[in-house]
Structure formats: C-alpha cells, structure tokens
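Lecture notes, unit on protein representations.

Consider one protein chain, 447 amino acids long.
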Amino acid sequence: PALLAEQKKIAPAETLASELARLCRCVASAAGADHPLLAHAIVTLFGHIGVYRSDYRGLAAILPVALAHTFAQRPELDEPLALLAAAIADDREAREAGARLQQLCGAVTAKATEDCVFYRDARLVSLNEVGGNPQYFGVGSAEFHHRAATRARRWPHTMITLSTHDTKRGEDVRARIGVLSQVPSLWAEFVARWEAKAPSRDLATGLFLWQNIFGVWPLDGRVTTALRVRLHAYAEKAAREADRRTSWHDPDAEFEGALHRWLDDILDGPVARELTEVVAELAPHIESDILGQKLLSLTVPGVPDVYQGTELCDDSLVDPDNRRPVDYDACRAALESLQDRKMRVVAAALQMRRARPDSFRRGGHHPVLASGPASEHVVAFRRGDDVVVAVSRWTVRLQGTGWGDTVVALPPGTWSDALSGVRHSGLVRAVELFAELPVVLLERVDD
C-alpha cells in the first residue's frame, strides 16, 4: 500500500502533469475560485480511491468516503477539497469537471498500479493483474458464492473473462504461477538453488522474473528461438516498467545487458533442466487450475468472453506477447477431435449455455455443498434447476490424503456429466465425481 500511494503521487506530478493542470483549471472555473493547494488536494485524494474510477452506480459511496479520509489525514486541505466538491456538484459544469476527475483518476491508477507496482511486487506475480490487488491472496468459497449470487441478482449480464488484450499474463500462465502458492517451500528451495547457479544481477528483478519464466516454461523443456526472443523482450519491458534499475525514459544499457546475459545463462545452462523437472512435477495441479478457472468463467453469473486463442492452453505474457496471431487451424482441429481437455471444457460449457439459456440468464447462483475430510477442495454450485458445476482446487494437498470419504450432495434427479457422459445422483463421492477430470459440468437428464 505504501508503494502504491507513493506512485499515485508521482504519476500525476510527472507523467500526467498536464492532465492534472487541466483538471485544476476546470475545477477552478466551475467552482468560481481557485486555491494554491488544489492540485495537491486532488493528488492526495487519488491515494484514497482504490478503484480506477468511481462514477458507476455501485461505487457511488467511494468518492465521499475518499474525501473524508483525505480530510482526516490532511485537514489543511479542507478548502481545496470543498472547491472540488462544489465543482463536481454543479449541474452546469459537473459533466466536464466530474468526467475529467474520473478520467485522471483512472489514468493515475493505471500508471501507478499496472505500470509500476505490478512489476515491482514479486511475492506472487499471478496476483498482479488488472482489477486485482497484490495484497489479497485469493478468495474464500464463502466470498466467491456470495459475490456470484449478488452478481446474478444485480448484474446478470456483466462480462466474465480471464484474458484480454491488456492482461499482464495469459490466464494459463496465471494459473500455473498460482500453483506455486501451494508449494512455497518447494519453490523457495528451487529459487535458492537457481540463484546460486545463475545469480540475478538484481535480486528483486530476479525474484519477479523467476516466476514468469516458470509460468511459460515448456513441458518438454525445449527452448525454441521464439521462446528465447519472447522472454528477452518481456524481461526488458518488465525491468523498464518497474522503473527501479532502468526505465523507458532513461534506460541503463549496462544493467539491461547483464539482464539479457542472465536470461541466456538460464536458457542454456543447467537450470533449464531443473525448470523442466519442477514444471513436470506440478503439471497435474497446473491443469486442474487451468480447467477449473476456465469452467467457472464460462458458467458463473454473467456473459463469458473468450479471448481468441484461449480455447487452447495459452502461454502469453503481457502485450505485445498476448497479441500474437491465433492458430485457428489448431483450434479447429482441437474442436473437431475434442482430445484437448481445455477445448473440451470450452465446447461443452458453451453448448450447455446454448441448450439451457434460462438457467444461465435467470437461474441465479446456488451453492452446492460438499462434506467430508477434503470438502474444502470442492467448489460447486447450481444454475437454475438443471445445471450443476463442480471444480476441484488446491490439489497439491490432496496428494498425501486423497479425497477420502468426501461427498457432494447433488440436488434431486439424475445428472449427466457433459464432459465424460457419466451419470450421478444423490450423494456422490468426490473420488468418483472427479475420476476423469478435475472438473464436472452436470445437466439434469430425468423428466
């Protein structure tokens, strides 16, 4: 939080100084008065707004609360804050002053968060995503179900997506890196070993890049020319965005050269083999999370948006890497054969939505509970009266114990898994439910 607050002060003072000056002139014109601390008050206010912009109906309380927190922290800014409030409350000028305030707030948040903090924070880089917050390590099942049910009631047509042209990593790269949160000791051991064999020039940069390298490392360990070029381009962009040792405005050729040599040492040295080994060891759990998040994105309340190419596993990093041409021939072939598990999930979920539109448009979100020793590893819910979705999670911890006597209580009726064709009813053991895939998509097939 301290780093983000610092960057929110730097962005409007440097990169966006002209936009800040224009907003101040607009506020002064609308309020009929000016104040020497107006710009400072606006910048301080931005530090208390935790979203990109707050002019959506559901976020109406954010701006007044931010004004209150700003005044509590800096009471000497009361007068310029009052000028700002007057400017955006005046119906004659509110459209321009209010719009410019929100536009600048969004730009400041993006510059400070996406273009800096997301490249400096290296605890778990899969958290560093647009709309996310590196402070929060995941969502509990209670919060997930409550948010989904609320969305079904209030915003049933909101967009649900995992990848866009602007995501910092592709959805499957994020899922793979997220698995590291289940094996922190193993990851720490590997990174310590790799740093001894191929020490990074700057440890903060190294810790950030190790996770991203793991996120795109091929299962077969084959380092292609394309992968080498992509990783070098990403490492340079990430270091410049972080703006610690080098930057876009003042690139440090010596540091960047050392960074590129370090990458080549990894790609061509003994660390490459160990990277392949750890990826192979975690592969089943990586696939579980990839399939789980994909099925959820296609079945929770809202309208799913599938970024082209993510019907198959995608190893994209930040733009321009995530804007590479899509291999449509491979997608068509996978759709025809349905041998690729991710494509099978995508096809089945979209066909289910087409066949049972009322369940997904107006069917609400109803948790389906599991019970038993491994119940926390199941997330399940019902849409309407004829669709049940269940996914497994945190599967690394299941290696030693298995599912045991964990059961899922299905609603009344007979249910067929659209992914495997297996039928279930009543209390179903989790080990049977997830026998073929770590996810199931059930439709009611009795009258």
